[in-house]
Amino acid sequence: MTDRNVLVAAPADASPRRVASAKKIGLVVNPIAGMGGRVGLKGTDGADVLDEARRRGARPVSSERALQALKKLAASKAEFSLVTAQGDLGEDVARQAGLHPVVVHGKPHAGSTPADTREAVAAMLRECVDLLLFAGGDGTARDVLSIAGDRVPMLGIPTGVKMYSAVFGTSALNAGDLAARFIEGDPSVRLREAEVMDIDEMAMREDRMSARLYGYAQSPHHRQLAQNAKAGSGLSENVALEAVSRQLARQMRPGCLYILGPGTTTRRVMSALGLPKTLLGVDAVLDGALVGADLDEHALLELMQGRESYIVVSVLGGHGSLFGRGNQQISADVIRQVGRDHIQIVATLEKLVALESGALHVDTGDEEVDAMLSGYLPLRTAPDRTVYFKVRS
User: Fold this and answer.
1) E strand intervals along the chain
2) SS3 for 34?
3) What 8-state DSSP symbol labels residue 99?
4) Are 242 and 264 in contact (CB under 8 A)?
5) Which of 53, 69, 76, 61 is closest to 30 using CA atoms?
6) Cβ distance 309 to 220 under 8 Å?
7) Buried-most residue among 112, 193, 270, 279 (CB within 10 A)?
8) Over the stretch 104-152, which tens digit does the pLDDT of each residue have?
9) Closest by alpha carbon to 182, among 137, 132, 232, 257?
């Protein structure tokens, strides 16, 4: 990039600065990403699913999480210019963060579609951006990848329901921090080939969890700030999970409500009880009986009233994610009412050892709850075996 003077995105109460060779960031926000999480849907792909999310009372979450990332970026020493798309595709939240973006793509209609993301990315590529910063989930990552390929680094602000791809920060704040470090040329940040993955919807309809690889993107990486792709379990891990799941099922206390998060690990617990499990949903058990399947946040809170409650979850392999990836129905309010001491986590030692960051991650969207969960939590790794593992927000 040749030396030239560019207008740097600056806080609104500061004078614009002019610097030579400032990096250029392209920002695109998917304003509907993540709306299906708390209401028990598996995403917001498609107009019918979005309509159902709204019918269930879903509210937008993408812009507020993008705002967290942009405020972190704006507060850094990074010097950059920002280009974005009109309105809720990026411009609005950038201005809320006190930045002065250049709008390079107009919004032709109300609402948001995958085509809007793709067209916005194409416009940003024409502006020769150095980094594509997007707010969304795996579907948005696929749309960005389909246009950008591996030509320009991309980094995701996690705001979706499904985030199995390795292009996301571990939280919105960490995505903003990572973007700033990348722009500053921090030597602790490197570019890597990162997997872009998404749930195989055909497999999901057959009640199987299968993440499909869509390609690889160049993405900034820092072991404490960026997540890895979802990983599967080996044979030895499956044997350990079967055994600890049977023990956990036997030890469930009478009169207590047990909330079981998504995944194949919690399905093993349900199988030990002789009950069906919603693979990608959240179910509830009371006295050995299924009292709710594929529940949303509201239904969980209703079932918990007047009952001592427990949460049973597993670790999302590769990610090290505990809350905030695919289980948003178990919201900050649910976690707050259950309490830290009533969270039961099942994971294998192999999965924990493989975590590059050396810690689990929580990203509930509530700083107070994330702080409550931080520190060391007990994990069931085998029958009568518990390890304490670090959790970061």
Assistant:
1) 5-7, 18-20, 23-29, 80-85, 102-105, 131-136, 154-158, 190-199, 211-221, 257-260, 283-286, 289-292, 309-314, 321-323, 343-346, 360-362, 375-382, 385-392
2) coil
3) -
4) no
5) 61
6) no
7) 112
8) 998 766 667 889 999 999 999 999 999 999 999 898 999 999 999 999 9
9) 132
Contact status, residue 196 vs residue 142, Cβ threshold 8 Å: yes
> Which amino acid is present at 318?
G
- Altogether, the residues listed in the chain come to a count of 393
Give the model confidence (pLDDT) of 25-83 as tens digits: 999 999 887 665 555 555 555 556 555 555 666 566 889 999 999 999 999 998 999 99
Residue 117 CA to residue 140 CA, distance in Å, equals 7
Cα 15 to Cα 249: distance, rounded to the nearest angstrom:
62
In 222-367, the DSSP E strands lie at 257-260, 283-286, 289-292, 309-314, 321-323, 343-346, 360-362
DSSP 190-251: EEEEEEEEEE-HHHHHTT---EEEEEEEEEEE-TTTBPPPP----HHHHHHHHHHHHHHHHT
- pTM: predicted TM-score of the whole model, two decimal places: 0.66
Six token digits for residue 63: 């812009």
β-pair type (23-29, 18-20):
unpaired
The strand pair at 5-7 and 18-20 is best described as antiparallel
Pairing of strands 375-382, 385-392: antiparallel
For the chain, the structural domain boundaries read 5-221, 235-392
Distances (CA, A) of 107 to 50, 114, 195, 326: 19, 13, 29, 29
**CA 290 to centroid of chain Cα atoms:** 28
Contact assessment for residue 134 and residue 29, using Cβ atoms and an 8 Å cutoff? yes
Beta bridge partners of 220: 191
